[in-house]
C-alpha cells in the first residue's frame, strides 16, 4: 500500500474512494490493523474504556496516550497514525502545543481533539507549527457529562446547524480531517459533501468519506453494542479475517447499513 499521508486521503476523497480507520493501542494490533489495509490507525482515548476499564474517557492521562502511541508506532507499517489529546490537555493553546508535540514525538502523524469553533485558533496555531489536526464533532465523548449521556447529536435543526458551522470553521482553521460521531446520516452526508477535507464517520451513516470503529467493538469484545456497531468476528476464524472483512465492507459500501444508522 505504501506509507499513507494526508495527501493520500485527500486524493481518495476526490476520487470517491472510501478509506478505513481502526483504533489500536498496542504493537500487535497496530501491525494487524495495518496489514489488514486500514489507511489510518487511531490511538483513541477510548483506551480509557477498553484497555483501562474506566466508564468514560475522562480519566485518561497524557502519559497514557504517549505510552500507547509509542507502542502502536513501533509496529505500524503503512497506516497514518492519529493520536487523541485526552480530556483537558488542549484547553489552552500552550497546553495544546506542548501535549501535541509529545504525541508527535511518540510517532503520531496527526493529533485529534474534540470541539468546534472554540478550537479554531488552537488548530491554526498547531498547523502553523507543523502539527496536523483531526477535529471531532457530534457526540464528543469527553463532553458526556454536558450531554447527560452518550446521546445522538444534531437531531434538532439548531444543533445540526451548529455542527455544520463548527465543521466549516475547523476546516477554515486548517484541520486536515474531521471525525463525526453519532449524528443523523443526512447531516453527516451534507457535511461530507460541503467540506473539502475528508470526514470519518462513526454512527454517522454511509455518506462520509471514511469509517472508524473501536477495535474491541468490531471484534465483538466490548460487552455492549451500540446500534452502529457490527461484530465482524461473527463467522470468522481469526482476528485477521475480521479486520479484513471490516476494511472490505467499508470499501465496498456494505458497512454501515440502514440498521446501523441514526435519523
Ligand atoms: O477514542 C476513540 O476511539 C474515538 C473514536 C470513537 C472516534 O475517538
UniProtKB/TrEMBL annotation:
Organism encoding this protein: Parahaliea aestuarii
Name recorded for this polypeptide: 3-methyl-2-oxobutanoate hydroxymethyltransferase
Keywords linked to the UniProt accession: Cytoplasm, Magnesium, Metal-binding, Methyltransferase, Pantothenate biosynthesis, Transferase
Subcellular localization, as worded in the UniProt entry: Cytoplasm
Keyword Transmembrane among UniProt keywords: no
Main EC class the enzyme belongs to: transferase
Catalytic residue positions: 181 (proton acceptor)
Extent of the signal sequence: none
Any Gene Ontology CC annotation: cytoplasm
HAMAP family: PanB
Amino acid at each position: 500500500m505504501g506509507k499513507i499521508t494526508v495527501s493520500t486521503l485527500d486524493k481518495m476523497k476526490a476520487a470517491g474512494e472510501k478509506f478505513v480507520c481502526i483504533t489500536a493501542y498496542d504493537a500487535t494490533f497496530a501491525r494487524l490493523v495495518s496489514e489488514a489495509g486500514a489507511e489510518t490507525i487511531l490511538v483513541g482515548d477510548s483506551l480509557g474504556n477498553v484497555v483501562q476499564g474506566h466508564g468514560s474517557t475522562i480519566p485518561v492521562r497524557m502519559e497514557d496516550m504517549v505510552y500507547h502511541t509509542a507502542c502502536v508506532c513501533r509496529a505500524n507499517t503503512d497506516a497514518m497514525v492519529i493520536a487523541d489529546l485526552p480530556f483537558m490537555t488542549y484547553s489552552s493553546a500552550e497546553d495544546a502545543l506542548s501535549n501535541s508535540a509529545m504525541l508527535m514525538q511518540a510517532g503520531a502523524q496527526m493529533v485529534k481533539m474534540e470541539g468546534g469553533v472554540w478550537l479554531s485558533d488552537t488548530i491554526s496555531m498547531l498547523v502553523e507549527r507543523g502539527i496536523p489536526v483531526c477535529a471531532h464533532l457530534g457526540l464528543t465523548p469527553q463532553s458526556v457529562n454536558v450531554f447527560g449521556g452518550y446521546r445522538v447529536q444534531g437531531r434538532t435543526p439548531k444543533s445540526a446547524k451548529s455542527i455544520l458551522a463548527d465543521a466549516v470553521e475547523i476546516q477554515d482553521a486548517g484541520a486536515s480531517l474531521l471525525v463525526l460521531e453519532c449524528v443523523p446520516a443526512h447531516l453527516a452526508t451534507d457535511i461530507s459533501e460541503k467540506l473539502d477535507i475528508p470526514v470519518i464517520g462513526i454512527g454517522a451513516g454511509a455518506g462520509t468519506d471514511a469509517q472508524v470503529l473501536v477495535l474491541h467493538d468490531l471484534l465483538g469484545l466490548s460487552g455492549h453494542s451500540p446500534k452502529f456497531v457490527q461484530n465482524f468476528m461473527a463467522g470468522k476464524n481469526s482476528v485477521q479475517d475480521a479486520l479484513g472483512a471490516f476494511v472490505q465492507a467499508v470499501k465496498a459500501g456494505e458497512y454501515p447499513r440502514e440498521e446501523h444508522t441514526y435519523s
